[in-house]
Amino acid sequence: MSNSEAIMIPANKQKLGELGDVELHREHLKDYHGVFWDVIPAGGVDVPWKHPEIKSGYFYISGEGTVRYWMSIEYIRRWKDLNLDEVKKYVPGFRKPEPPKCYAILIRHLEPLHIERKLKDFTLVSTGQHVELVRNYAIVKDEGYR
Length: 146
Description:
The protein has about 150 residues and is mainly beta. It is about 15% helix and about 35% strand. The chain has a 6-stranded mixed β-sheet.
């Protein structure tokens, strides 16, 4: 899987509480075999997800400055494009599927990395530069860190 694309998502439990708590999402995933996380589209623009090839990602723990988790992704779509009755079991009680233009990420596996990484260990697909900052999300080269 080396050199394919992945999504980098910031998580901040101190700022967002349960919504930013990766471990709470891991617990839900263990119970239901899937969990949703969502991100705001770049620029807040309501457009379909443009990277259907992305099937993996990383969580950057922004309060600590480390990339700590790897995830496998079934799909990324807008909430409004999903049948919520079919996927509601994957939505933790503290997460609401809104606003509808946000991207819903269905995570199937979520594990701590064997070795925590720094943002600079990742390269942006768009520029080829090392990652220095992640606000909503970033598309990075997946170097196969697990």
